[in-house]
Amino acid sequence: MAQSNISWNKLEQPAFRKFLEKYCNRHIPNESTLRRNYLKKCYKNHRKGD
Fold first, then answer.
1. Residue 3's CB: how many other CB atoms inside 10 A?
2. How far apart are alpha carbons 18 and 28 in whole angstroms?
3. d(Cα 25, Cα 48) in Å, to the nearest integer?
4. Measured by CB atoms within 10 angstroms of the end CB, which terminus of the chain is less buried, N or C?
5. Where are the domains of the chain?
6. What's the domain of life for this entry (predicted)?
C-alpha cells in the first residue's frame, strides 16, 4: 500500500478492509500495527532497490 501511495488509514474503512481480506485471503492488521511493525521494513527495502 505504501508503494502504491494508498494511505494506511484507508484500512479503517470497513468495505476496503473486507475487500482486502476477501481477495488477499488473509487477516489485515490494524493500520497502526502495520505502521509500527512494517513501515520501516518497507522503507528500507525500497531504499535498497534505488
1. 8
2. 9
3. 29
4. C
5. 9-48
6. Eukaryota
Task: Pull the grid cell for residue 36.
Answer: 509500527
The model's pLDDT over 1-50, given as tens digits with 9 standing for 90+, comes to: 666 778 888 888 999 999 999 999 999 988 888 888 887 787 777 777 65
How many other CB atoms are there within 10 angstroms of residue 36's CB atom?
A: 11
The alpha carbons of the chain give a radius of gyration, in whole angstroms, of 12
Indicate if the alpha-carbon torsion angle 30, 21, 45, 6 is positive or negative. negative
**Separation between Cα atoms, residue 28 and residue 4, nearest integer Å:** 17
Q: How is residue 2 written as a grid cell?
A: 505504501
Q: Which three cell numbers stand for residue 20?
A: 482486502
Cell numbers 535498497: residue:
48
